[in-house]
Amino acid sequence: MKTPDPKGGGRGGIQGGSQLAAPAGRAWSPWDLISDGIVLLDEKGRITELNAEAIRLLHCMLPALPGRDFWEIVPEDIARRYQGATGKALTSSARHSFVAHDEFADSWLEYTFSRHPAGYAVVLKDVTPGQKLQGLLDDSLRYNQLIFHANPNAMWIFDAASSRILAVNEAAVAFYGIGRKAFLTLGMGALFPDGEGAALLSALAPGSETGDVHFISQLCKQKKSDGQLVLVELACGHINWSGHKAILVSLADVTERHLADRSLRRENAEQEQELTRLQDTLKNTTRDLTAFTDALSSDLQRPLHAVNGFAAMLAEKYSAVLDESGRHYVNRIQAGTRQLAKLVDDLRVLVQLPQLSGNLERVDLVAICGALIDDLRRHNPGRVVTVEMEAGLALMADKSLLITALACLLDNAWKFTSKKAEGWIRVDLLPGKTPDERILQVSDNGTGFDAAYRAKLFTAFQRLHSSADFPGNGLGLAIVKRVAERHGGRVWAETGQAGASFFMAFPQDGAGAAP
C-alpha cells in the first residue's frame, strides 16, 4: 500500500480524492445486497470492486472506479488526515478503523480496513446518528462540568466504591482551604470529624437506594484545613461521573444561621418570660385597680349619699333659720357631693371598660339619644335646646358601651351650650374612609375649645375650661375614647368660631350598619 508523497506532489497510494456521486449505468453486483459499503482494494490500494452503498456513502461520480486509487474517491480533507496513519497502521496490523466527519455532507463514516489475500477490504458504515448523539452527550457532560466547577456552593464528588475524591469545584477549594491537587488525594472521610462520614456512607449504601438516584439531606459538621469545625447543610446523591459510580456532595455553611437561630430562640425565651412577668404584673394591677374602684363605688358612695342626704334635710327643715350665707353653704355641699359621686361613677366606668364584653349588635341611635336627651331635659327643664337627628340612624356596636359614650358626648354638648339662649345639638352618622366604617358625629353650637389644645381633649382629668363656668371632672371624653378603642375605632374633634364637633369611627362587621 502506498503512502502520501512527503513533498506534497501526486496523490498516489491510499490517499484523498474528490467528492463524487455514483456513476450511472453501473452493472449490478451481489455485493449490492450488503447494507454496508464494501470496497475491495489490491495490494497497491487500487479499487478492484465496490458496491452501490459504498458509491452512495462516498458520493462518487467518477466513471470506471475500478483501478483508481481508493484515496482519490475519499473527501480530500479526510484523505489528508487519515491516509498516512492508515498506511502506517496496516504495516503492523491486519485491521484498522477510524471515524471521519464529512463536513460537506455533515455525515460521519466509519472506515474499517482489513487485510485479505488479494489486498484490502474497506467496510464503510454510516454512524451519523450515533455520533450526533454522542456529541450531544459530550456537550451535556461539558455543560454539567461547567455548572459543577462554576457553582457558588461548595461541591465535591467521590467514588462510591473507594470513597476517593474524584472532583472538587472552586467554591469547595475556597471553603475548606485545601488546594485542588491535595484535595484530590483525600478520601471523603478526611472531611468529616470523628468518623461521621461512615454514617453518610451507610445512608447511601446500595440497599438504601430507591431507584437509580438516591438523594439525602442532613445537618452535619465538616472539618477545614486548619482544623476548624463548621456546621453545614449537606445534600448528596448518586451520579455517574466520567464512567465512575460516584456520589455528588453539595453543602452550605449554616454555622452563622444556626448561631443566629439559637440566639433568636434564647431572646424569644427571655421575651416570653418578660411577657409572662408583665402579664402577671398587669393582672395584679388590674385586680388592685378593680378593688380600688369597688371601694370607691361602695365605701365612698355611702358616706357621700349620707352627706348629701343630711344637707338636703338641713336645707328643707332649717332653711327658715338659716341666713343667705348658710343656705349658700348647704347648696355648695350638695353640689360638691353630687360632683364627687359623678366622679366616682365615671372612674368606675373608665376602669371597667376593658373588662366589658364588646358584643356587637344593631343599635338604634335615635331611641338611645332620645332617652338621653329626655333625661337631660328633666334635670334642666328651663333649657331651650334644639336636637337635630335624622330618622333611621343605626350602628353595629356594643349597645351598653355605645350608650355610655353617647351619654358622655350629649352631656358634654348640653353643658357647653348652657351659656346660649338657644342651643342646638346634632347627631349624625357619616360614611367612613372605607366601606366597612361608619362615623358617629355629635355637634353643638356651644363654647367650643382652643384648637391648640386638641391633643389633650381625650386625656383623663384634662380640662380646658374653668370648673366655675362648666362643672365636670375631665373624664367624659376619656371614656369616649376608650369606647371607640374597644370597637377598634378612633376619635377626634373639630372646632370653629362657635361650637364643636366630636367624632367616633366604628368599624362594621360583614352585615354593616345602615348609612
From TrEMBL:
Region feature Disordered, mapped onto this chain: 1-22
InterPro entries documented for this protein: BphY/WalK/GraS-like, HATPase_C_sf, HATPase_dom, His_kinase_dom, HisK_dim/P_dom, HisK_dim/P_sf, PAS, PAS-like_dom_sf
Domain of life: Bacteria
Sample GO molecular function, one term: ATP binding
E.C. number: 2.7.13.3
Keywords: ATP-binding, Coiled coil, Kinase, Membrane, Nucleotide-binding, Phosphoprotein, Transferase
Record-linked Gene3D superfamilies: 1.10.287.130, Histidine kinase-like ATPase, C-terminal domain, PAS domain
Catalytic activity: ATP + protein L-histidine = ADP + protein N-phospho-L-histidine
Biased composition (Gly residues): 7-16
Coiled-coil ranges from the UniProt annotation: 261-288
Segments forming domain Histidine kinase: 295-510
NCBIfam families in the cross-refs: sensory_box
Protein name in the entry: histidine kinase
